[in-house]
Amino acid sequence: MEDRDARRSETDAVGVSFQTLTRMIGASGHADPDRLVAVAARLMPHADQAGVTSIRNDRPAVTVASTGEIPRAVDALQYRTGEGPCLDASLDDEAVISDDLAVERRWPAFAAACVDQFGVRSMLSVRLSLSQQDRAALNFYSPSTHVFTGQDVAEAVILAPFAALVVQQRLHEKDVSHYQEALISSRRIGSAVGILMAQHGVDADDAFGMLRTASQHLNRKLKDLAADVNYTGDLP
Question: What is the pTM for the complete model shown?
C-alpha cells in the first residue's frame, strides 16, 4: 500500500511539472530561457540551482541561462577543463548524475576544483534534443551529496522537451537577428561603395578597396565606416 501511494505521489509530481511547463510556455509556444530554468529549479526539490548549456556547430560551449552566478561559474570551469556532467550530457549521455564531486573520478580536472571553488557537490544533467548541429543540456546543482534520486531524473526527463523547445527557439531568434544584421551591413556597405564610385570615379572593386583600406588604417569595422560614408558622402 505504501509503495502504491509513493508511486501515485511521484506520478502526481510529474503531472504537476508537466502542467506548470505547459502553462509557462502557453499557446504562443514562447518562453524565456531564464524563466525556464527558474521554473525548473523550483520543480526539482533537491536542486539548489539550474542552468542550460548549449553547444552550436562544435563552437565553444556557452551557458544560455542560469538561476544565478554559481551555475555559470561551474559551467565555465567545465568549458575550461573540457570535461564535466553538462558536457557529457549534451554530447553523448541521456542523463548524467554525480552524487559527490569530491570523490568523482570521471572528471579529475573539473570535479575537485568545482567543490573547492564553488561548493557544489552533486549535479544532474539531462540532454536536450535539438537540431543535428546544436546540442544542449539542462543542468541541476546542489551543495549536498547524494541528493538526486530516480524521481529527480524522471522529473528532469519530463522537463527536457520543454527546455529543448525554449532553447531551440532562442537559438533561432539569434540566427534571425544575425541574418538581419548581416543583411543591413551588406546593404550599408554596398551603398557606401556606390557613393565612393561616384565621388572618386572608380569601379566597384577599387571603391571597396578604398573602404577596406580605410577600415584597416582607422581600426574600425567595415560596416561602421560604411555608415559614415553613407552619412557624410565620403571617407573620413
Answer: 0.68
